[in-house]
Amino acid sequence: MENKIKRGMLLGFIGVVCFSLTLPATRISVPYFGETIVGLGRTVIAASIVATIFVVKKQSLPNKKQLKSLLIVAAGAVLAFPLLTTFAMKSLPVSHGAIQLALLPLATAGFSLWRGGDRPSKRYWIASAIGAITVMIYALDLGLGQFQKGDIAIIAAVLVLGLSYAEGGQLSKELGGWQVIAWAILIGAPFFIVPVGFSISVNMLQAPIEAWVSLFYLGVVSQFLAYVAWYGGMSLGGIARVGQIQYLQPFLMIGFSVSFLGESITWLTIVLAIIVVLCVILGKSAPMTKKESHDK
């Protein structure tokens, strides 16, 4: 049992590290390939891997009810989140996006509670409010008193991915964790082939090696393998236990932004990141009550 938990924690950590490299890889690749290729092309790359696996495994199709949930997962994790973060990374530093994305576990918890019929306590709402206000203050400070379009895009990305994670978490109990993202990728990919195809240009061949590596990292790792590690870790070590590793993500993102992009980090960034993560920890551990049923 202990070895199973250790393997789960290791897989969960690998998943978080992989997710933490997503924004830096996006920041590197966008100037050379554009928003459409980076935002949607990663799904086309991932879909080729998933399709091969499903053919080899002779995977059975999901039922109609599961398909509805998969459409929600695909809309968030496969379409909206990549496009919104790609747009945001055109103008925002990665460290900025990392603090806003730190609210993701709290958003996921909120949507999970809503889906499960639970009623959050005052502690949850207070923690959520403090975390949101901290993020807004940071965004306004960097934006010289006003929100940038990238800020709005990142906040929207947190909300749609939070809903997608919550829906995927419910569905993973039936399909299995890795199959949820795999089917979501296959559902979304056919709609992306045409816009991606029209966005390809000869000039892309002149992109440096780091841009190509970043693009394929997004397609192979961020969009698929990271999810396999993450969901696999939670299934082995437990959702609550392994989920705590996600608190490291904003700090890993900030570290990678310094290492790979040479971004400068202020003490304010570190302090606000700590405040947001503490709010997330308090919010996720807050007691919940079931909504009263009116059925007789």
TrEMBL record:
Domain of life: Bacteria
Subcellular location: Endomembrane system
Domain EamA: 7-137, 149-282
Annotated membrane topology: Multi-pass membrane protein
Keyword Protein biosynthesis (UniProt): no
Keywords: Membrane, Transmembrane, Transmembrane helix
SUPFAM superfamilies: Multidrug resistance efflux transporter EmrE
Main location, first listed in the record: membrane
Listed transmembrane segments: 37-57, 69-88, 94-114, 123-140, 180-200, 212-233, 267-286
GO CC annotations, alphabetized: membrane
Record-stated family: Belongs to the EamA transporter family.
UniProt protein name: Multidrug transporter
